[in-house]
Amino acid sequence: MIELKEYLLISAILFIIGLMIIITKRNSIFILIGIELILNAANLNFVAFSKYDPVQLQGQVFSLFIIIIAAAEAAVGLAIILKVYSYFRTANVDEIDDLKG
Amino acid sequence: MELVKIAFYFFAALTVVSAFFILYTRHVLHAAFSLLATFLGVAGLYVLAGADYLALTQIVVYVGGVLVLIIFGIMLSKKIVGEANEASGSRNLFTAGVLFIALLLIFFYLYKNSGILESPWIMEAAQSDEVIKSSTVSAIGKNLMTNYILPFELAAVILLVALIGAAFIAGRVMRNTDKS
């Protein structure tokens, strides 16, 4: 039987990698990828705990809603990134520094 | 070693290694394809945790939807066709390294000392062997239509709003796009 601890460790590593990507990368699409990794890490936790809740399955239903929110977030985020790109001609978040161009 | 354990460690290694590759690489497109491997690995972990419906949703929504969106974004935000889209990811490397180790230690400490792994309901379920053993599709369907009917409908509204909002933001023609 696979222990709960192993799931939690993988999820922690995934979360930290996502956070590192957001901190270190300059390209805005990388940042979106980091957010997706963090959401996946949270989902993994919910699913791992939900294994011991076979009747109500609260964790699985919750992570289903997280997946829905993540899809909506990715769509809106990419639309904003494309608009920013077409305005500033760059996807580098460090160069996008003026508010009213 | 049981077959389940081997499969678990395979998917875990796939997830972690491809996530590290995203952190390591400078090319955004390589990162997107590595993200594919991460999502598939997480889907495998879902199956091994007894979440078969969620694993399918993960593949359909993430691999089929979000990843295609990200690759579209990469394609449409390339500076010059043929030029490698460099990310130059060397910002805050020291801070990131310190934070990585610190967070890992904090998580280890919490898992060891918070006692969440020995919660009463988990021990109870593990003792009486009340874990997921069959498909969860019908249970999730019943739950969505009874206990979670309001969030379910709200999720539909959110998806509609996101669809309209994304199309509005991306499709609007902006005046004076010439910044220089």
Task: Walk me through what this model shows.
The complex is a heterodimer of chains A (101) and B (180). Chain A is an all-alpha fold and 101 residues long. Chain A is built from three helices and no strands. Chain A has helices at residues 4-24, 28-50, 58-88. In chain A, helix 1 (4-24) runs antiparallel to helix 2 and helix 2 runs antiparallel to helix 3. Chain A starts with a helix and ends in a 13-residue tail after the last helix. By secondary structure, chain B is mainly α. Chain B is built from seven helices and no strands. The model of chain B has no long low-confidence stretch (mean pLDDT 84). Chains A and B meet through helix 1, helix 2 and helix 3 of A and helix 1, helix 2, helix 3, helix 4 and helix 5 of B.
Question: How do you describe this structure in short?
Answer:
With 101 residues, chain A is mainly alpha-helical. Chain A has helices at 4-24, 28-50, 58-88.
Defining traits:
heterodimer; A: 101 residues; mainly alpha; B: 180 residues; 7 helices
How much helical structure, as a percent, in the residues of chain B? over 70%
Shape of chain A: elongated
**Alpha carbon gyration radius of chain B:** 22 Å
Q: What portion of residues of chain A is helical?
A: over 70%
Whole-number mean pLDDT of chain B: 84
Which structural class do you get from the secondary structure elements of chain A? mainly alpha
**Largest β sheet strand count, sense and barrel closure of chain A:** none
Q: Based on the structure, what is the oligomeric state of the protein chains? A: heterodimer
How are the SSEs placed, and which strands pair?
The complex is a heterodimer of chains A (101) and B (180).
Chain A: H1 4-24, H2 28-50, H3 58-88
Helix pairs in contact in A: 1-2, 2-3
Chain B: H1 3-24, H2 28-48, H3 52-76, H4 93-113, H5 120-127, H6 137-145, H7 149-171
Helix pairs in contact in B: 1-2, 2-3
